[in-house]
Amino acid sequence: MFEDFLKMTLQDFIPKAYKNSIKKGSYTWSSPSNIALVKYWGKRDPQIPENPSISFTLDHCKTTTTLSFSKKQEKNDFSFEIYLDGDKKESFKPKIETFFKRVADYLPFLKDYHFVIETSNSFPHSSGIASSASGMSALSLCLMSIEKELNEDVSDAFFIQKASFLARLGSGSACRSLEGDLVVWGQHDAINGSSDLYGVKYPFEVHENFKNYRDTILLVDKGEKQVSSTVGHNLMHDHPFAKERFDQAKTNLERLIPILKEGDLEAFIKIVESEALTLHAMMMTSMPYFILMKPNTLEIINKIWAFREKTDSKICFTLDAGANVHVLYPAYESDQVSEFIKNELVAFCQKGHYISDRIGFGANQLTMKN
Ligand code: PMV
Prior knowledge:
14 strands; 35% helix; globular
């Protein structure tokens, strides 16, 4: 039954013969990063999440990608160059090659062109902030712009849905970066339209408390992670607590629905912080086990708890697959929390660096075709 659903839906992303032919062109998209509230950790082929997740789309942390393309004679292989901030990046090639292979059936024009991918991030490359979500999302949108030019029947809704579908095949969480301000990825009976294949905008009412929410990202460790997300996801296959964890994520997502509607910040904090610590608990209880938090990650968490105890602040934290801490708080607490961050938390950041971000509304196209 599930297989049928998957097959049928996958077919929908395979285009019919294109109507138009184009020789060359260029598209630019800018796409934000996102931070999960209920975490995705564990997947099976092809990039199908073991549990549904939900994220806030960010605003300032983003990747801008220009994809230029020109028709080539030979059609037997992928052909592309990739640049980060103007510098050729051979090291990015394997990831893009894997991505192209995964999406080739859905974008039959891929072998017809030579591509130049020029990308830049609004955040420093060595900040410990993963650029795969924003990067894969921006690249997928550029590819969809080409598909739309080849076949202008593509509707706006399908454009976004397929771009999210493609982004997922590049990096799972990337499929949650195209729209805002809350996006769900992964089939959940309580969320109509949710799918394992692409992200969808959270469809229910959200209380004012969560509008314009803030995320200050404290850069605790800007180095390369010792264990990649891919390895971490795979370690969930034989994980002793996998089933309980996947069930818990489903329950947490369902519990968030009334919390988001009613603006219940205390209940929100409990779920979000528990999700962050559970993600890292899964890492610590994998075989082989690993720890991505650093001593300063724990210092910050303890300071946040002490501050909450002392004041009536609704500040909380979440973590992604690294040592950095995302500090989340409602917009109306901005002044008070900014002071607290400057006075008490910045000392635990590498070189005192942090990024002030907030909830955003998704990707933007920057230029039209040349
Ligand atoms: O998209 P990936 O494969 O880099 O995995 C991301 C996993 C987490 O950031 C830890 C959680 C999430 O849901 O974004």
